[in-house]
Amino acid sequence: MQFLASDGEHIVEKVTGGKRRALSQLADSLRSQGIEADSVMRDGRSSVAMIREVIANQHDLVVKLAKGRFSNRSGFFGSTAIRLMRKCPCPVLVVNDDHEDVVNSVAIAVDVLDPHGIQHELNDCVIDSALSIDPQSSVDLLYALPRLMTMMVGDDMGGDLFTAVELEKLHGEMLVKAKDQLTTLADTIRERGVAVRDMTLDGRPEFAIPDYTAEHGIELLVMGTVGRSGMDGFFYGNTSERILNRVKCSVLAIKPPGYVSPIRAK
Fold it and tell me: Which of 92, 98, 135, 149 has the fewest Cβ atoms within 10 Å of its own Cβ atom?
């Protein structure tokens, strides 16, 4: 069977027209609920086109389904969702198929021991974004502290340079500091009239945080992603991306103040 160039153009126009009509119908549905909505269709890779739309029109939030029907990426999130969370300059809310209109349980993942000032600013942004959702139940504030022996040996960082006793002592000191810092952050939330549980988890973040969200039925995880100098668009230490590879609930991904996407508007 052979297709002429004109046949291909006809097929593309037919498919594009169908998608444009479907998009217009979704916008009409929002307008019928009193929501101002426009429909825009762009060419190119989905994530890049969406980011360029965000930059061009200075949007405040992107909402995306976790995974499309035809995604071939393993895990809970599809490739487009992951790329958006990596490189989109505004917050990205990625929801699963059964996401409810009202969020009943929210977990906020923060880093309280990172010495970089940008992380403190990011913690504040993450908390502000989470509280803006106005959850109907208490909020869980999470920090995961891995065992130093496990971390150093697992990352080939020379765990043999310290004795087990020395590492355990250092871990204990870090745990006390982490709990103190986490309680301070939790108190700022309580001052805003929101009930919160501050939980210092034992283990690597990429395991402890997804496990916690699953065990406690968390519906939404709010977490930060950081673009470092010379590495714009990459997660700080890739920790966030490893968490996303395991988590199975909706996620609101937040960038730090001043973040610049590596994607440029045309």
Answer: 98
In order, the DSSP letters of 15-68 are HHHHHHHHHHHHHHHHHHTT---------S-HHHHHHHHHHHHT-S-EEEESS-
Q: Give residue-wise pLDDT tens across range 28-37.
A: 888 899 988 8
Q: Which of 244, 142, 225 is nearest to 189 (CA)?
A: 142
Alpha-helix residue ranges (DSSP H) falling in 106-233: 117-131, 148-154, 164-190, 205-215
The Cα diameter of the chain in Å comes to 75
Write down the pLDDT at residue 233.
Answer: 40
CA angle 113, 117, 123 (to 5 degrees): 65
Q: Which residues lie closer than 8 Å to 234 by C-beta, 6 or more apart?
A: 86, 227, 228
Please tell us whether the domain made up of 60-254 is placed in CATH 3.40.50.12370. yes
28 half-sphere exposure, CB direction, 13 A CA radius:
6
DSSP-derived secondary structure letter, 257: T
- pTM for the model: 0.83
What are the CA-CA distances from residue 79 to residues 66, 72, 151 (Å)? 9, 8, 28
Name beta bridge partners: 111: none
Q: Which residue is associated with the tokens 């949007």? A: 59
Q: How far apart are CA 247 and CA 206, in angstroms?
A: 9
Host H or E run for residue 108? strand 106-109
Sign of CA dihedral 150, 179, 229, 62: positive
